[in-house]
Amino acid sequence: MASKRHNLTLSAAIVAAATAAAGDTADVDAGKVIFNKCKGCHEIGESATHRIGPHLNGLFGRRAGSHADFRYSRSFQRAGAGGLEWHAETLDAFLEDPRAITSGTRMSFRGLKSAEDRTNLIAYLRTFSDDPADIPEADPTVPATDHDLDPAILALKGDPEYGEYLSGECTTCHQAAGGDDGIPSIVLWPEEDFVIAMHAYKDKRRKHPVMQMVAGRLGDEEIAALAAYFSQLDE
Predict the structure, then answer these.
(1) Which among 64, 93, 126 is the end of a domain?
(2) Band of residue 55 on the pLDDT scale cut at 50, 70, 90
(3) Taking residues 4-31, what's their average pLDDT?
(4) How far apart are CA 211 and CA 197, in angstroms?
(5) Looking at the structure, do residues 106 and 178 belong to the same domain, yes or no?
(6) HSE of 143, CA atoms in CB hemisphere, 13 A
(7) Which of 126, 161, 190 is the last residue of a domain?
(8) Residue closest to 156 by CA, chosen among 208, 199, 213, 203
(9) Is the pLDDT of residue 35 over 90?
(10) Which end of the chain has fewer CB atoms < 10 Å from its terminal CB, N or C?
(11) How far is CA 42 from CA 8, 73, 109, 180, in A?
């Protein structure tokens, strides 16, 4: 239980650090230029291999320190064992100050202080992960902050027990244990982000036929209940 509390504390700290990420748009071409700061140690793209640091293909949704054929620092090994995964929020916090997330990292990189630079770099890295069109609820490139959802819907307090009752259809694809085997985890998602995403599918503004079908069958209170359930599933 103490370990789970530690994981939750780490996740909360990372998400809090990421809220300062600027903007809801990103410039992939600018991100490619910024990657020049990284390529002395990391490769990405076709034929990428490990160098001083691991290659960065397929980064999104991957557990930290998980390349079996790369020798990570103990700090990264501990971070991965503690549940750290690479998503837009965690990457934003790490790129701002790597040693704040993995204090014993061997990386000499001091971090990117510009939120815009981090957003653009993350967008570039995302293009070498799974295509968002191919998998349900693909990792966003940046935290979603722009939406026109009715505040009354966001204000609904979901019943996690009801959410558990409804969750069977979700967990046929998304793993309740939080794993990621090609379909990203939705465990410990912030409730508001979950609700916004589901309503975007419901309104067909986010493209994925399976998710549109699932969300289309759910009412506002049912979506709120699922959000409440998955937000605390690991407690």
Answers:
(1) 126
(2) very high
(3) 51
(4) 10
(5) no
(6) 23
(7) 126
(8) 199
(9) yes
(10) N
(11) 29, 15, 12, 23
What CATH number should be reported for the domain holding residue 174? 1.10.760.10
pLDDT of 180 reads 55
Rounded distance between C-alpha atoms, residue 222 and residue 163, angstroms: 7
Please tell me whether residue 63 adopts helix, strand or coil conformation: strand
Task: Tell me how far apart the alpha carbons of residues 190 and 205 are, in angstroms, rounded to a whole number.
Answer: 20
The phi and psi torsions of 175 (rounded to 5 degrees) equal -75, 130
Task: Kindly state whether residues 120 and 156 are assigned to the same domain.
Answer: no
Query: What tokens appear for 32 in the block?
Result: 């490619």
**Which residues have a Cβ under 8 Å from the Cβ of 177 and sit 6 or more positions away?**
187
Do 70 and 162 reside in the same domain of the chain? no
Phi-psi region of 65 (alpha: psi -120 to 50; beta: other; left: phi over 0): left
Q: Which amino acid is present at 185?
A: S
- CA 125 – CA 25 distance, rounded (Å): 15
Q: What is the pLDDT of residues 192-214, one digit of tens each?
A: 888 988 998 888 877 788 888 99
Domain check: are 101 and 22 in the same one? yes
What pLDDT shows up at residue 13?
Answer: 41
* Enclosing domain of residue 169: 151-231
75 residue type, one letter: S
Give me the count of residues in the chain.
235
